[in-house]
Design goal:
With 219 residues, the chain is mainly alpha-helical. The protein contains eight helices and three strands.
Amino acid sequence: MSKSLSKRPPKTAPKSSAPGAPVQQDPNEAPSIAKPLTRVVAILYDGMLILALLFLVGTVLTVIGTLLTMETGTESSQAQSLPTWYQNLVMTPAFVLTLVAFYGIFWRRGGQTLGMQTWRLKTVNNAGHLLTWGQSFKRILAACLMPLLFGVIGSLIGGSRTIMLTSAFLGLIFNYVFCLFNRRGLAVQDMLSNSITLKMPKVAHEGLWRGFKNRKKNQ
C-alpha cells in the first residue's frame, strides 16, 4: 500500500479556463520587497500625473486668489504677486491635500497607483491589508520628512531656491538609498509608517481596475 501511494503523481490544482476565473499561482512565487530602483521609476511615472494635477490646482487657486485679493490690470507692468498669506495658508495646504488625495485614493482602493501598477508594485500595511486614510497620510508625511530636512539644510547653507530644491530632491533619493543599507530592504517611509511596498508576482497581480471593482464588492 505504501508503494502504491509513493508512485502516485502529486496532485495539482486544476487550471480554470473560464473567463474571469482566478489564475493559479505558482507556489514558488511570492510577493517580495520592491527594489529601490523600481520604486523610483514608478514615482517618476506617477510624477507626471501629479505635476499635471498640481498645475491644475495651482492655476485655479491663482485665478481665485487674483480675483479676491488683488486688482487686475490690463498691462504686464501691472502684474502683481499673490499675497504671502494666501500662498502659505491656501495654496500650500491645497497642494498637500492634492498629494494626499492622489495617493490615498489609489492606496485605499487597490494598493497601487498607475505607476505602481506598471511595475507590479503594491503598498500595504505590515498586516498585509490595504492602507487606511490615516495610514496613507502617515506614510506620505514620512516620505516627506527627509526631503524637508534636506531642503532646510540646503536653504541654511546656500540660501537660494535652487539649492533648497536640489537638497530636497536629494532627500527624496535618500529615502530609497536607505533601502540598500537596511537588512530587509525597507525605505525610510516604510519604517516610519509601518507599511511596505511589495513587488507582486504576475499571477497575483490583479490590475488597478479589477482592484477597484473587488474593493467595491467587498464593501
